[in-house]
């Protein structure tokens, strides 16, 4: 028998007749040419058996008849998450078909009483994947639901939020576990997300996170490469040009300005700039040629 009441499903009280027909289905259109199942010739058990055997039309009929029940479960999740209703319905159908494959009619358990667990599990999984930065196990999701329910009841009774220790005592979990569950509930932040309150607008989180080991390794590789290639390239320059490049870019000596290099060569700062420009042209040609 299909009996969807509050005790069996935990959702809104809805009832489907034990033997289906278009006239006996509540909440559906009464005239539907696809509803070929009648109260006299097909029972729930017979339909489930045919659907388990892999008959496509019967599997579609099972999905169609149980869609209102799946919708009831989806509405409960929709009120507490930002996941789209259609997404929840699709996952609910997946859970229903999984239940159909594993259902054993010989045990005497009504199909929906067995399938509702699989439907909820599928919806919990998609909610965890789409609304949290990490995927939580079914057990963790149940624990999080218990913690939130205890938090809500505490706030209603005491008019303030409970501390982690109080919540842990209420639900019988260690404090660290309660804190871990709440951390997993936080929304993820993207590295490209702008950081407000900084002096310069447009600063992203990635720009504020330093990867010191990576930067140090890059610098070491860069220095080794420079030590290997720079002497070879400087050989393409004359003595005056080498002096300017070494002084301007701190190769083996402190970096100097144009005005500081000029007295060493007995020329003006503008002439040093010209020498530097010519030297860089030669180095570029040597490196790319």
Summarize this structure briefly.
By secondary structure, the protein is mostly helical. The chain is 63% helix and 0% strand.
**Order of helix and strand elements from N to C terminus:** HHHHHHHHHHHHH
Q: How would you classify the helix and strand content by structural class? A: mainly alpha
In DSSP terms (H or I, runs of 4 or more residues), the helix count works out at 13
Oligomer designation: single chain
Helix content: 55-70%
Average pLDDT over all residues: 75
The largest pleated sheet is described as: none
How many runs of DSSP E, i.e. beta strands? 0
Strand content: under 5%
Let me know the CATH homologous superfamily of the largest domain: RNA polymerase sigma factor, region 2, helix turn helix motif
Which CATH class of the largest domain? Mainly Alpha
CATH architecture of the largest domain: Orthogonal Bundle
Q: Tell the overall outline.
A: elongated
First-last Cα distance: 84 Å
**Whole-angstrom Rg:** 36 Å
At CATH level 3, the topology of the largest domain is: Rna Polymerase Sigma Factor, Chain: A
As residue ranges, the low-confidence spans are 1-42
The total domain count is 3
């Amino acid at each position: 028998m299909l009996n969807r009441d509050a005790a069996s499903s935990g959702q809104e009280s809805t009832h489907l007749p034990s033997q289906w027909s278009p006239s006996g289905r509540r909440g559906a259109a009464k005239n539907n040419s696809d509803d070929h199942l009648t109260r006299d010739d097909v029972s729930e058990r017979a339909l489930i058996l045919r659907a388990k055997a892999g008959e496509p039309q019967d599997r579609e009929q099972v999905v169609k008849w149980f869609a209102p029940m799946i919708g009831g479960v989806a509405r409960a999740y929709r009120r507490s998450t930002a996941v789209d209703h259609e997404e929840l319905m699709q996952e609910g159908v997946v859970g229903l078909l999984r239940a159909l494959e594993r259902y054993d009619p010989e045990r005497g358990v009504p199909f929906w009483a067995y399938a509702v667990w699989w439907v909820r599990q599928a919806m919990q999984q998609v909610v965890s994947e789409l609304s949290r930065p990490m995927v939580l196990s079914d057990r963790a999701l149940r624990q999080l639901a218990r913690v939130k329910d205890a938090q809500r009841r505490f706030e209603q009774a005491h008019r303030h939020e409970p501390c982690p220790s109080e919540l842990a005592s209420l639900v019988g979990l260690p404090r660290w576990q309660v804190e871990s569950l709440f951390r997993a509930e936080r929304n993820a932040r993207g590295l490209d997300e702008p950081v407000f309150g900084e002096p310069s607008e447009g600063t992203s989180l990635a720009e504020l996170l330093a990867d010191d080991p990576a930067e140090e390794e890059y610098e070491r590789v860069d220095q080794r490469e420079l030590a290997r290639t720079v002497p070879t390239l400087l050989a393409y320059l004359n003595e005056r040009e080498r002096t300017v490049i070494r002084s301007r870019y701190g190769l083996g000596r402190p970096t100097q300005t144009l005005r500081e290099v000029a007295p060493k060569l007995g020329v003006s700062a503008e002439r040093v700039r010209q020498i530097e420009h010519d030297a860089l042209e030669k180095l570029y040609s040597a490196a790319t040629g």
